[in-house]
Write a structure and sequence with these properties.
With 302 residues, this protein is of the alpha+beta class. It has two domains: 201 residues, Multidrug efflux transporter AcrB transmembrane domain (Multidrug efflux transporter AcrB transmembrane fold, Up-down Bundle), CATH 1.20.1640; 78 residues, Alpha-Beta Plaits, CATH 3.30.70. It is 67% helix and 10% strand. A four-stranded antiparallel sheet has the order 2-3-1-4.
Length: 302
């Protein structure tokens, strides 16, 4: 099935400068947003503290929730809407005994809201040392995924292809984090999993195009690399759109109907699929051409 005929002649490489300019602008906005907000909105996994998820039977004003938390010393907590009549309470306060904390929460809510007016879904406590350790491991996980892909693509193809693929992956992660910062989404382990999924999805599409470029350069020896890349991207355009579109539709359903628990995860993947498809076409392949101009391949020299 061909959604778009392989005979299309879009000049993707010719739009490289405009695409790179737009990408740089988005990344700069993201960096500015992170600086303005004092960093990413770190979840309890990284920042440490106490997280309480409560399901309410009726709509309760935030002021009443905050007043109920006063006996626990959590009156300065961040209270967020987490779904229909469901809230998240985040606080930097820590408790050594999780069972005692759960009992204290129930006692405070019984006195303020009523015994049958709520249901405590979960109580999590993460210390600062554990949060710091998780932060380091999350960063290493993303960096090591880049390094592993760089080595794999470099061995299977050439270094110029590996360089194009890695720059595209770094671009995807930075744009996804820009979206998270601008929307104020909480950055936790679920988001790290989403970023690693984006890396895998994006490089898969990129390798398909790289493989077609390699085939076409062998078939059409006299064709310039500029034309060969354009030909290859056009030939695989139908496959790229169909693959991304099917994944996007599934993620869209998860985003709207999957529930509040995976809402931010689905949002990150939605951004990642769009950006990953864009970078595969407009970033990765043109980078190969740019590197070829700077340092021609041995085959070209011969």
């Amino acid at each position: 099935m061909e959604f778009i005929k392989s005979e299309t002649h879009f000049d993707f490489v010719g739009m490289m400068k405009m695409a790179v300019t737009c990408s740089l602008a988005v990344i700069i906005v993201g960096i500015a947003s992170v600086i303005f907000h004092g960093g990413l909105n770190l979840g309890i996994d990284f920042a440490g503290g106490t997280l309480i998820q409560v399901k309410l039977k009726n709509d309760v004003p935030v002021e009443n929730i905050r007043k109920a938390l006063e006996p626990l010393g959590f009156e300065r907590s961040i209270i967020q809407q987490f779904g229909p009549q469901e809230i998240l309470i985040r606080t930097a306060e820590l408790s050594a005994n999780l069972n005692d904390l759960s009992g204290n929460i129930n006692t405070a809510f019984d006195a303020s809201l009523g015994k049958d007016a709520y249901d405590v879904r979960r109580v999590e406590v993460v210390g600062p040392k554990v949060g710091k350790d998780l932060t380091q491991k999350a960063i290493f996980a993303i960096i090591f995924s880049w390094i592993g892909i760089l080595i794999y693509v470099g061995i299977r193809f050439e270094f110029r292809y590996a360089l194009g693929g890695i720059i595209a992956l770094v671009h995807d992660v930075l744009v996804a984090m820009t979206a998270l910062s601008l929307t104020g989404k909480e950055f936790d382990l679920n988001i790290v999993a989403a970023l690693l999924t984006i890396v895998g999805f994006s490089i898969n599409d990129t390798i398909v195009i790289f493989d077609r470029i390699r085939e076409n350069t062998r078939k059409n020896i006299r064709m310039t690399l500029f034309d060969c890349i354009n030909l290859s991207v056009n030939q695989t355009l139908s496959r790229t759109i169909l693959t991304s579109l099917t994944v996007f539709i599934v993620l869209l359903v998860l985003f709207f109907f999957g529930g509040a628990v995976i809402h931010d995860f689905a949002f990150t993947l939605l951004v990642g699929v769009l950006v990953g498809t864009y970078s595969t076409v407009f970033i990765a392949s043109p980078i190969v051409l740019l590197f070829e101009k700077i340092k021609p391949s041995k085959a070209k020299g011969k």
